[in-house]
Every structure is written in structure tokens, then in C-alpha cells.
Amino acid sequence: MTREILNAVNISLDGYSVLISLIIAISILSIKQIDTSTRWFAFTNVAAIVFGLSDLVMWVSEGTDVTWKLIVLPISSWVFYVSGIFLFLFYIRYVYDYYCNFEKLNKKWWYFCVIMVSLYLIGVCISPFTSFFYTIDEFNVYHRGKFFPISVGIELLLYFEVLFLVLKFRKKITNMENIGFASFIFCPFITQIIQIANYGIALNSLGLTISFFIIYINVNNQIKTKLHKTEKELKVIDNKKTDLLSNTIYNLANLIEFSEMGSQHVKRVTLYSRALANACKKNGLYENIIDENFIRNIEKTSSVHDIGNSAVPRSILSKPSKVTPEEFEIIKNHTLVGSDIVNQILAIGHERDFIKMTADICKYHHERWDGKGYPEKLKGKEIPLCARIVSLVDAFDALTTTRCYKKAVSFDEAFRVIDNESGKQFDPELVMEFLKLKRQIKAILNTYSDTSYEE
To answer: Half-sphere exposure of 107 toward its Cβ, with a 13 Å CA cutoff?
Structure first.
């Protein structure tokens, strides 16, 4: 193989290795939150980039045909050795920190590495003056120095240190992780032996690239696993926060309701809403809207539908006779007040869908399918589905509950009223599903009745 062809092959191998290490380093360092061990692996790849580039520059800067080569070759040779040993240092630190996740390691392993690297660096620093590890002849061509085997011996000791750690912790990590760590020992070691035996061909970078690629697959999987775990933990925290705030509002709504009527109206409305939403999902009604999240949210949000009543004078809410038109206007305003309260309280730390559903229920649960409701006289499907559901079950509960201004009607009569209002006050499709739930609704009413309910 001619010198020109050999140089071309070596440059290609180094270029490929640099590219792979660059991709790995950027992909890891671009992640905002990575653990310490993974960061050291990224630094290892940065060192590998410098190592590969310096090796590449060495191949193109040999010779005396131009002056710059006389300057560049000594510098690139020195950088090649320094970056190579720092590559070891960073990698062993990566392995050391990674295994510390399972067991506190004795610092002697790290100190041994630092001592070996320091001895290596001393050899590199004196090489330009003594030909210790390498030399450059009068023709500006790189050669191994008379004590080059010492550099290989130090590298072998570092390889054995990694091998010992891999064997020590092999049962605490997966087989794929063991293969990744072991690849750093065997791939570069094998290519090093081949390179020593066949001086002139650069395989070091290729061996490192193969091992780094295998390790990166493991690191990438670990990062994905940790991100998934973090997402699940954040979801749990968010759900707890949602439950805390929604329970606070639920209790507040219950307190307001109880102070007005001494009833379990809020509890029944939440269970009716969930039952109706579940029935719709089961039968494919509004399947583009109703999912598990919708059902979970409507059970929580429906509890606050009348929270705006806190702004209505109690003398009006508890009036035993029919309210005046003026008083009714005040009552109607509770929908807007409730929506404002919800937006102010839930805006802190809640997801947008939860806030919107809660506000929509408060604001629109007195709208009618025929457009004769309030506050905005919305018609048909202009009314948010969550508000249409709560409107129906709230009306049913009002029919079956004794209030200060009226007596309760029988269970069957309440169902007849709901059926008669289909297409007028209520969404006809929701009415159809509600009528199928008679037994389930009766069970809820009996379980959470204000008194012993009789049909």
C-alpha cells in the first residue's frame, strides 16, 4: 500500500471517528438535565474529537514541502498524546461515577487513575526534547520514541482498572451495559495491538468510536428511561396538586351548598356527571371529546358549578317564595362570578383543559339547548359539552330534592320531566343516554340522599 493511499485511509478513519464523537457529544450536552456520569461520557467524546482531529492533522502535516508543516506536526503530535490520555481520564471518571450509583467506591481507584495520567503527561511533556514517547526526524516525519512502550503500558494499566470495575459490578447492571463498558476495553485494545503490529495504519480512533457508539446506545436508553420516570413523577405531582386544589374548591362549594340547603347536592351532581360521561364514552357518543381525562375532570369540576352563589345574598337564595325579576337577575349573575372565581384560583398550577372545563361549567350550566338560557343565550352545540352534562344532572337533582321554595317530585316524574325537555332545555343525545341510567342514578340518589328518599 503506497504512502498516499495509506494517508487517505487514515484521514477517512479519523474523520469518521471525529464525526461520530461530535454527534454523541452534542446530543448529550444538548440535554439540559443529565447526571454527572453521563456528562463525563460527553467530555470523553469531546476528548475523542480532539484526539481524532490531532491524529488527522498529523497525517497531513508530515514532510518539509511547506513551512507550516514544520510547526503543525510537533504541536499536533503533542496534542494527540495529551488528548488521548485525557480521554482515558474522562472515561474512567464516567465509569467511576456511574458505579457510585450502586455502591460507594474507594477513592483509591480514582487516585490510581490520576497518578497514571500524571506520569503519562510527564512523559508527553519531555518527549519534544528527549524523544521519550515520540520523535520527529529531520524530514518532519513522526516516529515512536524509544520509550513508547511505557505509554502503552500505562494505557494497559488503565484498561485493566476499567476491566476490574466492570467485573466487580457486572451483576448490578444489565448485559447490554456490561457489553458497552467492556467494549471500551476490547475494541481499542485490539485495534491498538493491530496498530502496533502494523505501524502506519491508524485504528485507535476507530476502536474508540465502536466502543463509544455501543456505550451511547446504553446512555441514550438510560436518558430516555430517566426522562420517562421524571415525566411520571411530574405527572403524579401535578395530579396531587390538582387533587389538592380541586378538593379545596369542592369542599368550599360543599360548604356553600350546605349552608344554603344542608344537602349533598354537590356530591350527587359529581357522581351523576361521571355516570353520564361514562355512558357517552361507552356508547361512542361525542367520542372525539369524551375520554378518560374528560371523565376524570368532569367529576372534579362539576362540584363547583354553583360556586358563584357565594356572591348572591342569602336572603334571595333561601327565599321560600318566587323571586322577583330583579332578584332573578342577581341570581343569574352567579354564573359569571363563578367563572371569575375559578379562573383566579385555578390559574395557579393547573393545566389549561382543567381550568377551561371548570370555568365553562360555572358559566354555561344554565344555558339551554334551544338558546333561551343565560348568561349568553348559547344554542345547541355552541354550549360546551361539559356544561350541557352538568345542566342536565343539576336540573334532575333539583327536581328530586326539596328546596326552600318547592317540594321534591318523585323519581319517575323527574325522569319524565327530563325526557319532555329533550331538545328544548337539554341536549337530546345526552337525554337519551341519561334515561338508560335509571337504575344507576337511583342507586346514587339513595346512597347520597339528604333524607331517606322515597319514590
So the answer is: 1
